[in-house]
């Protein structure tokens, strides 16, 4: 990263951390009490008949027995209609989320769901959610 961009980037990272810790959903994602919690979790296997590998930002099993895959996104949205933006991002990342779910479904007995979390927006959208 060019030194000229370092101050702005540091500010964005700081804001993302503060937002996550101030956000109920962010704190839930980072909760150290989740079972089988991993960050930057490397997984490989077959997806649609082809060998693939992936690194998951965060995965864990919640108290209801659901395995979660959380994919952090640093996108910013400053316009109107935040929900439409989140829906577009979900569509944009549908294929990687499907691949992640496929890989973990093959490895673990729990039901698996995936979601996008946007720390700069305190935004959240689940792959099963439609706005």
Describe this structure as you would to a colleague.
- The chain has about 130 residues and is of the alpha+beta class.
- It has one domain: Lambda Exonuclease, Chain A.
- Helices cover about 40% and strands about 30% of the residues.
- Strands 1-2-3-4-5 form a five-stranded mixed beta sheet, with helices on both faces.
- Strand 4 and strand 5 (about 125) form a beta hairpin.
- Helix 1 (about 5-20) crosses helix 2.
- It is globular, with a radius of gyration of 16 Å.
- Which topology does CATH recognise? Lambda Exonuclease, Chain A
User: Averaging pLDDT over every residue, what do you get?
Assistant: 91
CATH class: Alpha Beta
| Number of distinct helices | 4
Helix-strand topology string: HHEEEHHEE
Number of domains: 1
Secondary structure tally: strands: 5
CATH second-level architecture: Alpha-Beta Complex
Strand content: 25-35%
**Spans of 5+ residues with little confidence (pLDDT < 50)?**
none
What structural category do the secondary elements indicate? alpha+beta
Largest sheet: 5 strands, mixed
Biggest sheet: strand arrangement: 1-2-3-4-5
Basic shape: globular
Helix content: 25-40%
For the termini, the CA-CA separation is 36 Å
Q: What is the C-alpha radius of gyration, as a whole number of Å? A: 16 Å
What is the topology?
Layout: H1 3-22, H2 24-30, E1 35-47, E2 50-61, E3 67-72, H3 82-92, H4 94-107, E4 112-118, E5 123-126
Parallel strand pairs: 3-4
Antiparallel strand pairs: 1-2, 2-3, 4-5
Helix pairs in contact: 1-2
């Amino acid at each position: 990263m060019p030194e000229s961009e370092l101050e702005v980037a540091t500010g964005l990272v700081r804001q993302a951390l503060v937002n996550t810790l101030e956000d109920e959903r962010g704190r839930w994602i980072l909760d150290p009490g989740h079972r089988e919690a991993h960050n930057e979790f490397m997984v490989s296997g077959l997806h649609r008949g082809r060998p693939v590998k992936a690194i998951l930002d965060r995965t864990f099993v919640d108290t209801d027995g659901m395995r979660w895959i959380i994919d952090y996104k640093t996108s910013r949205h400053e316009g109107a209609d935040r929900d439409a933006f989140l829906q577009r991002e979900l569509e944009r990342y549908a294929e990687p989320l499907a691949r992640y779910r496929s890989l973990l479904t093959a490895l673990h007995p729990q039901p698996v769901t995936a979601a996008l979390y946007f720390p700069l927006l305190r935004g959240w959208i689940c792959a099963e959610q439609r706005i």
